[in-house]
Amino acid sequence: MSLSEDVHQLKMLDQRLIRAFAEKNLDEFDNLVGEYLRLRRSLRTHLIDQSIISEPDSIAADTVRKILTDGLAADKLIERFLGADFSERLDRSQIEELSDLFYGWISHKEYLEGLAELRPLVLRASAPESVSNLIAQAKDCYALRQYDAAYALCRMTLEAVVRDICIRRKLFPDHGADVPLLERYRWRDLRDKVCSGPLRERLSTLYAELSALIHARKNVSRNEARAAFSETLVVVEHLYDSNDI
After folding, report:
1. What is the distance between the alpha carbons of residues 21 and 27, in angstroms, rounded to a whole number?
2. Dihedral of CA 202/203/205/206: which sign?
3. Contact criterion met (CB below 8 Å) for 142 and 225
4. Rg of the chain's alpha carbons, rounded to an integer?
5. Are 45 and 94 in contact (CB under 8 A)?
6. Can you say whether residue 193 is alpha, beta or left, with left for phi > 0 and alpha for psi between -120 and 50 degrees?
7. Cα distance between residue 116 and residue 72, in whole Å
């Protein structure tokens, strides 16, 4: 059956289950529960790797949203009285059934090769957790072929680094370490506090290039993501060095 047909079938079973429970028709309720759970599980398995679902049937679309958010009325009933688990956790059989979604997309060899293409950041001092986490995420995204995400994380890294330098050097003495500088000041004002000359131009050029993705003006290739990550690390290292950190 199509997605729309499956969803309508599940909605019908949901209504029949509620009616059987209300009428205390336990035999019919027991019979319907198994069918309902099998179809719901099948739908969930089908939808797990979907990013966007285009469903012109408004009733089916609304039902899918309910399944994926608050759940249907029968979900709550079955969960309460039968202890069924409708959380987003997958059981062992589902994981085995769906494992090809991952291993058919990337192998551990390809992941490790991706990590090996990107070097670590080298600083004289320790990096704050915010910066180290962003760089680790960027490397992971690159190794997992999520190049747009890796590219976007490079811009976030620049912002986190500039903020960190401003705080470490106490360039805004009236504010504490938890102040959201990027919300109170323009980016260029913060940038100009931590660098000047050729380094400022290099940072400005890189930031503008990275912003093209943030503003949905481009998609990123593997080579572009790798080059952006490499340039980000070089700029970050120069920023920390030039500020004696």
Report:
1. 10
2. positive
3. yes
4. 26
5. yes
6. alpha
7. 46
Which backbone phi and psi does 23 adopt, to 5 degrees?
Answer: -90, 5
> Which residue has 């805004």 as its token pair?
172
Query: What is 19-60 written as a DSSP string?
Result: HHHHTT-HHHHHHHHHHHHHHHHHHHHHHTT-S------HHH
Tell me the backbone φ, ψ of residue 42, rounded to 5 degrees. Answer: -60, -40
Alpha-carbon span 45 to 38, nearest angstrom: 11
Distance of alpha carbon 198 from alpha carbon 54, whole angstroms: 49
- The first and second tokens of residue 95, run together, are 């994981």
Between the CA of residue 214 and those of 81, 86, 160, 220, what are the distances in Å? 47, 35, 16, 11
Q: Which residues of 41-72 are buried (b: 16+ CB within 10 A; e: fewer)?
A: eebeeeeeeeeeeebeeeebbebbebbeeeeb
Q: What distances in angstroms separate CA 3 from CA 10, 49, 143, 212, one per listed residue?
A: 10, 14, 33, 36
Asked if residue 44 has pLDDT above 70, the reply is yes
b/e map 206-219, b = 16+ CB within 10 Å: bbebbeebeeeeee
With a cut of 70, say whether residue 89 has pLDDT above it: no
Quote the strand ranges of the chain, DSSP E.
Answer: none
- What distance in Å separates the CA atoms of residue 199 and residue 195, rounded to the nearest whole number? 6
Count how many Cα atoms sit within 13 Å of the Cα of residue 125 in the half-sphere of its side chain. 17
Place of tokens 């987003």: 88
Task: For 200-245, write each residue's pLDDT tens digit.
Answer: 999 999 999 999 887 777 789 999 999 999 999 999 999 999 999 8
